[in-house]
Amino acid sequence: MSSDGIRFSTDNPVPAGPLDGLIEAVGWGRRGEAAWAKICARSSLLVTAWEDARLVGMGRILEDGVMCMVYDVAVHPLYQGRGIGSAVMRRIVGHLERQSFQSVGLFAWDQNPVNGPFYERFGFARVGYGMKFALPAEA
Ligand SMILES: CC(C)(COP(=O)(O)OP(=O)(O)OC[C@H]1O[C@@H](n2cnc3c(N)ncnc32)[C@H](O)[C@@H]1OP(=O)(O)O)[C@@H](O)C(=O)NCCC(=O)NCCS
After folding, report:
1. Distance between CA atoms of 57 and 11, rounded to whole angstroms?
2. CA angle, 38 as apex, 35 and 39 as ends, to 5°?
3. Of 53, 54, 65, 103, which sits 20 to 30 A from 129 (CA to CA)?
4. Residue 20 covered by a domain
5. Is position 58 within any domain?
């Protein structure tokens, strides 16, 4: 299996429907139209991967010109292991290399043991430990 037949795009914004469909498929739940409108508006790079009209992969950058975070790197479970996530990350790293950020981070969850090695391939290294503020809705 390969990423042949997959079209990559940096068009932004992307409609909420396909975005919610993708992140729901990877188990992150839906965010809704208003949230995606804000996310798209504030993401300086939004990489999407499409098979025809189906959104099968994505990744994005949120930054202020100095500090930068990579978010929402996701590939639909039916399309994982075909190089789509790597192709998304190569586009993100290409963008990072053209900037002069002081810091670039991302969150990688231990529930998926391939996440660490996956990001290490693209120049990321584990640092310290992460902390997450417990929002009232999660407490
Ligand atoms: C992590 C993720 C984005 C990788 O995307 P992908 O398209 O499956 O990755 P690729 O096909 O480009 O694989 C690249 C490498 O990652 C590793 N890998 C990715 N998925 C894997 C899997 N399910 N099992 C084993 N290794 C895997 C392999 O080492 C692979 O190397 P190979 O080229 O030698 O086979 C994807 O699995 C995903 O969306 N997972 C669920 C969401 C998630 O956890 N995102 C990360 C948030 S922290």
Report:
1. 14
2. 85
3. 65
4. yes
5. yes
CA of 19 to the centre of ligand 1 (A): 19
Query: What is the edge-to-edge ordering of all strands in the sheet holding 43-51?
Result: 7-9, 43-51, 54-63, 67-75, 103-106
Please tell me the distance between residue 10's alpha carbon and the centre of ligand 1 in angstroms. Answer: 21
CA-CA-CA-CA torsion for 125, 126, 128, 129, nearest 10 degrees?
140
pLDDT digits over 104-127, tens only? 999 988 778 889 999 999 999 999
Q: Is 80 in the pocket of ligand 1 (CB under 6 A)?
A: yes
Q: How many domains does the chain have?
A: 1
Q: pTM of this prediction?
A: 0.93
Does any domain span residue 137? no
Domain extent for 74: 7-120
- The CATH number of the domain holding residue 75 is 3.40.630.30
Using the mean position of ligand 1's atoms as its centre, give its distance from the Cα of residue 70 in Å.
Answer: 16
| 58 touches ligand 1 (CB under 6 Å) | no
Residue 49, SS3?
strand
